[in-house]
Amino acid sequence: MDIQGVRDAYRRYARYYDRWFGAVFHQGRKAAIEQMGIRPGEHVLEVGVGTGLSLPEYPEGVKVTGIDVSPEMIEIAHERVESLGMQDHVTIAEMDAEQMDFADGAFDHVVAMYVLPVSPSPERLVDEMRRVCRPGGDLFFVNHFRKRNPVIGGVERLLAPLTGLLGFRPDFSLEEVVAQTDLDIVESKPVNLFGYWTLLRARRERRGDVAEAA
User: Fold this and answer.
1) Where are the alpha helices (DSSP H) in 45-121?
2) Which stretch of DSSP H or E encloses residue 111?
3) Confidence (pTM)
């Protein structure tokens, strides 16, 4: 996986994304936004905003910035913002989440929904999410992770060679992500159809940072 590969995959998906993945992933998007407990006046960064399907779920009085590497997806997100009349509190930008232009601690909450298995470098992505989240804030993720069930996990491994075509890693491992990023996960729960996806809440600080602070 590389950035151009991701752009190529979502160029193919863009005009059909809402139809294929809108309803299927809706519950996970809604659960993540509810889990953040956003208060009026706070600023949220959504990494991998895609076509902006999640935008109507944010509460009133909240500022939202959404970024994505796919210009085709961003174009549709801009259209959604305008059609919903959200221009005064929603900003959409094309940006690589592994090299963000934002200042340290710029956001109260940072969320990435269905993004980690797409990222060329999950470790860099998580580090950037940590950097732009304010101290004391949390990071939120919604993702599919490889199942421990031997049958399902075996199918996911068989699909792994198709990663470039699919645009995501079907055999993405939560254990590997935690090891690579040192995520301090404080909550995990299943979401979407059959609980096949997972909603994670993680502390902004690395586990070692938390231990030192204590």
Assistant:
1) 71-84
2) strand 109-113
3) 0.83
What's the Cα-to-Cα distance from 191 to each of 28, 61, 171, 184, rounded to whole Å? Answer: 5, 26, 18, 20
Q: How far apart are CA 49 and CA 51, in angstroms?
A: 6
Q: Enter the tokens of residue 164.
A: 């470039």
Q: CA neighbours within 13 Å on the CB side: how many for 162?
A: 7
Distance CA 10, CA 15 (A): 9
pLDDT, block means (10 residues), the chain with 214 residues? 74 82 89 95 96 96 96 96 96 96 97 87 93 95 67 42 45 77 91 81 75 43
* Residue 194, pLDDT score: 62
| Nearest in space to 105 (alpha carbons), one of 139, 147, 152 | 139
> Which residues, in sequence order, are bridge partners of residue 200?
141, 188
